[in-house]
Amino acid sequence: MSIIVTGAAGFIGSNFVLNWLNNNNEKVIALDKLTYAGNLENLKSVENNPNYAFAQGDIGDSTLLAKLFQEHQPRAIVNFAAESHVDRSIHGPDDFMQTNIIGTYRLLEEVRSFFNTLSDDAKTQFRFLHVSTDEVYGTLSASDPAFKETNQYEPNSPYSASKAASDHLVRAWHHTYGLPVLTTNCSNNYGPYHFPEKLIPLCILKALQGQDLPIYGDGQQIRDWLYVVDHCKGIATVLEKGAIGETYNIGGWNEKANLDVVHTLCDLLDELQPREDGKSYKDQITFVKDRPGHDRRYAIDATKISNELGWKPEETFETGIRKTVQWYLDNQDWVANVQSGEYQHWLNKNYS
Ligand code: NAD
Ligand code: TYD
């Protein structure tokens, strides 16, 4: 038996592969286009594992997909592949439409062709799990209840609109063609291998490099934060026990304002790697121009996955964020490798 994981060299995909190989004796075929966000360093520790294979390619490449499915006869596909950064989607939505919408469509079509070749028994085992985001539900006011699976989709950014479109395609391929799909909508992840364009790793690295910590607007935007390994375990749980055609929200029950998150990072860095001048990293906090269309609050109601499938996050924000900061301090080589020319170009573009 084997599973194919797309977007496997990215932040969550790589954590999923590492966690899967630790807990299962089943082959994983990692597929990734290796965009700026894909990094084989993340998977270096398993490159000689006999249960692991890597294929470079695009989820929109039907020929490659057909070949991979024929060769490996997977019993499941877990689709992480996406353009994932809101700010980049504002500067240039094209890649988001191409991968998140057209790419998902081509992937669904190839999965459907493959699924139709399976025996009845293999068909009952087969699953297509689509990994999505809470951002498809739009934004909440301070007093609104958290997002449930039944909330209406109201995406506000090019990124969330493209993910919403992909979720709709997945739903339609189930209803129309009977593809056995599962969809997960998760809140903001944090943890090892997080590309430093996103708030938490960006601020850790900028703090250590003596640079400004850029807070958009008033810093009071709220996100629900989940440790990435908990997300990966949630996805594995849905893959194993989820009901076909259902959506499961995954979240950390952990809403925090951005400014509070950055204060926590500064406190941890003050403790673990104090500044040479004895001052706090908080002195580096700088308020910058807000993101256009910035969603004010996201919150996930994860009651369904907890009640129906028995999943709950294991890490608290305090334990998870401490592990994360320590990981970045311990993995300076990884950090140096991802801070390439292209990355500097992005920082200049977004923060100038
Ligand atoms: P990421 O940007 O770190 O990784 C995405 C990976 O997909 C990269 O390795 C990239 O090379 C690959 N990729 C991009 N286009 C591809 C294509 N056309 N074909 C094959 N591979 C391609 O993103 P992430 O944070 O790991 O997110 C993974 C998934 O989880 C995404 O679908 C995202 O929408 C979703 N998600 C992310 C978060 C979060 O907080 N990061 C939260 C909820 C859901
Ligand atoms: P981000 O990590 O980009 O995730 P998302 O936009 O998908 O939630 O951003 C998390 C929050 O942090 C979001 O409200 C935007 C804010 N933010 C900043 O204030 N400064 C920054 O430099 C970045 C990248 C994000």
UniProtKB/TrEMBL annotation:
Domain NAD(P)-binding: 4-324
InterPro entries: dTDP_Gluc_deHydtase, NAD(P)-bd_dom, NAD(P)-bd_dom_sf
Keyword NAD among record annotations: yes
UniProt catalytic activity: dTDP-alpha-D-glucose = dTDP-4-dehydro-6-deoxy-alpha-D-glucose + H2O
Record key words, sorted: Capsid protein, Lyase, NAD, Virion
UniProt superkingdom: Bacteria
SUPFAM superfamilies: NAD(P)-binding Rossmann-fold domains
Family: Belongs to the NAD(P)-dependent epimerase/dehydratase family. dTDP-glucose dehydratase subfamily.
Protein name, entry field: dTDP-glucose 4,6-dehydratase
Organism: Methylophilales bacterium MBRS-H7
